[in-house]
Structure formats: structure tokens, C-alpha cells
Amino acid sequence: MRLLRQLGWILLFSSFVLAADNDRPALTIYNQNFATVRQIVVLDLKSGTTSVRFSDATAQVEPDSVILRDFGDKRALQVLEQNYRNDPVSQGRMLSLYEGKTIEFLLADGKTVSGKVVRSGYVPGAEQLQQPIVEVDGRLRFSLPGEPLFPALADDTILRPTFYWLIRTDQPGRSDAELSYITGGLKWEADYNLVAPENGDVLDVVGWITMSNGSGKTFENADIKLMAGDVHKLPPPQQETPYCPTCSVVTVSAEVARVKEKAFDEFHLYTLPLPTTLHDAETKQVEFLRASGVRSKRSYVYDGADIGDDWEYQESQSDRGYGTKSKGKVAIYREFMNSKANHLGMPLPHGRIRFYRRDDDGRLEFTGENTIDHTPKDERVRIYTGDAFDLVGERKQTDFKTWTREAARKGGSETIDNTDETFEIKLRNHKKSAVEVKVVEHLYRSATWKIAESSQAFKKTDSRTIEFMVTVPPDGEKTVTYRVHYEW
Questions:
Q1: What are the structural domain ranges in the chain?
Q2: 81-126: per-residue pLDDT in tens?
Q3: Of 17, 87, 430, 481, which is the most exposed, with the fewest CB atoms less than 10 Å away?
């Protein structure tokens, strides 16, 4: 009997916990500046149809995304009509409601004056008022004589964006309805801080989730999930990125209860371990990743041809000087494997990644940043972090020849254009240790080419790119030359 009584208390307590969990609002925030919201709305439904007014949605709700259903599907709810108003009360709105009426205006000296509102100047949806017209003592003023004093709120004024529903149900009485909708004004992004020791490239990694709420609504004690991936969504008319000039920043540690990650459909969901309150105009940060001993590699790349973005195939074939402008900078890249063997192995959402190195005095110094795209586990992260100070590249064309030749073909012959082009690439290393530099060359003049001569081995990486791995001695210089033959 005692065991049954204890079991009964456990079941009762579990039902209370489940009910409390269901009462909490739930957010799924996407990294494309929108979110889905779920909350419980208590309805007192009458027989037949019931008019319901609801004013607890966000200011950027998409009205046509609303779904309202009985929680637990115990009764059928049918929304016969939905009206949405998003013109909360303001001075301009109140003036428009009192057009043609006389109200009091408070003057700077504390006195009041009566004036008839001829034209309020209020235009729904406009950022600025038109010029108002007020009649005072029989004369028209194209401005307000003072601060308007309104007798009371008009019957059709609202304080917040409001839904009006006409609901029909088969069972009258209290209903805990589940309301879901899509809203703008909420976003999240990932930030990664990677710290290297004074010597070496074994990293400590800390990942943060940063959530920003500019929706116009505070979510109390909410269950929050974050969706990572490129979910296709059409923007609503005149949708804007949430802007919170006065957003406060709250940082939450998650050392005990970790953010949980799982695959969901074709995307990834990150669930915050505990309910949290996300205030309007607030930015909140939660740690979701911490790892030590992450092996990384630093590499140098010299991609010396300054072709730019205006590559033209026809021009490149015959223009001797095309593609001969040289860059002098040697780029720095940092890379590491996102794998369990490398103490990671968690799908990494798109975000900003920052590198730091500890100086010999113990301080951290910033050494570069960039962004990474959504990166699955067991894939390599490789990002550009800047240009090396002590490495210099120099690239120049040393020879260029063009000619035509006749080639026999079945039924006749054809003319083939030929070009031979020779380049010299010099790398200078002013460091006290040797470095390996990847030299990237783009063979842009024709899809038909071959390397006729080369001072060292190369690797073909695609149909128009080759790479040389060059070891440059300390305080030394290394030269690479090659001649390429084109035909078209």
C-alpha cells in the first residue's frame, strides 16, 4: 500500500511537471533572422461562436502563419475569422481618432489652450507625420500648439499588436489552446574563440551562441531551440533585420548542463539545457562548445596573379600583359579537422571564428578572424586569417610568344593558335626558421594547356590550376619557374 501511495505521488508530481513544461513558451530561432513561437493561450469558449482578443504576440508576427489548436486535441477549434491590427496607440494615432473634435493642449508655461484637430497628420505605416492642422481661436495653425491632452482612449485604440479571432468549437468551456506562429525580430549566430599557446598550434576552443531579441516581446522562462542550416523562407513584405540599439548583453555559462545537438530533417537543432528568459531588446550568450587539445595547422599560400574579378576569356588569349600584375602578400590560413579524434566532432553552425595567441607575458593577443559556413563533423575547417609580415612574394612574366600552325585533319586542315608563356616566382623568407609556401598558379588563357618546363614538381588541382609546394630557407629566397604551352 505504501509503495502504491508513493507511486501515486510520483505520477501526480510528474503530471504537474509536464503541465508546467507545456505552459512555458517555446522558441525555435533560425539563423536567418526569424523564429517560430509556441505558447499556451487559455480560452473561455461559449456555445456556438466566441470572439477572442489576443495581444501577447510579437510586434513582428506574420499573421498568415498563425496556427491555433486545442492542446492535446481534446476538442475541435475552428477559427472562422482572424483580424490583425498593428497600429498601437501613439500621439499621431490618437490625434487621428480625434479629428474634427476639440481637445486641450498643454503649453510650455503650464497653461492649457483649446484647439480643434482639423487634420492630425497621421498616416498609417508612414515613418513621419504629415503637417498637422489645428484651429485655435478661429485661426489655423500648421503645428501643434502644445502637448495634446486626450480625454480618454478611444474605443478602437490598441496598446499592442492585437489579434481578433472568431472561434467555433464543438465543446464549450475552458480550453488550453496551443498557438504557433512565425515572427521576425529574433536571430542567433555562433561565435568561436580559438586560443593557441605561446609556441605551437594546439588550440583551446570555446563556442558561444548569441541570441538577439528585437521582436517587441519578452519570453519568460522559455524553452529555446536553435535551428542551424539553410532553411528556405520567403521574406514577408518589408521585413527588416532586427535592430536593437540599446540591447543589453547577458552571458550565461553552460559548464554543467551542455547545449544538446541533434540532426533534424536536413538541418541541425541545438537545444538550450535550461529554460531561460529572453527579454525584448536583449542579447544573450550561451556557451555551447568547449574543447582542448585541438590540433591545427598553419599554412602559407602565395596566389600571385592579380587578375581581379573582371576575367575575360577572349582578352586573356591574346593580351600579352593580361594577368601579369603581381601581388606581394603571402596569405596565412589556419585549418583543423572537426572530428572526435581531434576533440571536436560536433556540427559547427555558421559563425565568426577568432584566433588568439598567448604572449610570453601571459596575455592573449588577437591574430585574425573570419567566418565559417555550416560545417558537418569530420570535415576540415580552413580559413584565411591575414597576410604574413615576414614573407614576400614576387611574380613576373619572363617570356611570351604566340604563333599559328596548320594541323592536318580528315578532309583538310585547320589553323591552331599557340602561345608559350614563362613565369618566374620568387619567395623571400625573413623568418629565423624555414617555411613551406603553397604557390598557386591559374592557367587562364586556354582550357588546352601543358607545362612544357618546370623548375620543380607541381600538382594539378583542377582543369586550370596548378600548385607548387616550395620550402624557403630561413632568411633566404627560393625561385620557381615554369613555361606553359596553350593551344586553341
A1: 91-149, 296-332+385-487
A2: 999 887 777 788 888 888 999 999 999 899 999 999 999 988 776 6
A3: 17
